Amino acid sequence: MFEDDKLTYKIIGCAMKVHNALGCGFQEVIYQRCLAKEFENAGLSYEREKEMEIYYNNEMVGTRRIDFFVEDKVIVELKALAKLDDVHLVQGKNYLKVFNLEVGLLINFGSTSLETKRLFK
What we know:
Low-confidence stretches: none
Distance between the termini: 18 Å
Oligomer: single chain
Mean pLDDT: 94
Radius of gyration: 14 Å
């Protein structure tokens, strides 16, 4: 198992604990706060609501806030929707490309079962 796989597996485990405790139906910010606590319990370093710079032709053109940046290598985007759409996957993959990162996770707490998608550049 690759190091990134171990890390994403650990992140997903934290998300499962949150979803098992709360179920679905809450706002995204509630899941975000609980997930931060689980990351701390798991000994994961993270930045919450991290501002990331976006560059175009080597010029900074703006920023985008991501939900979590875990261990300085994995973007974690949260949703609390009944169903994920393709646009959410595309958005996550674009973040990896723009921020020059290899792996990310899209986690949806809004359905009765936790929905996770690993994203690769």
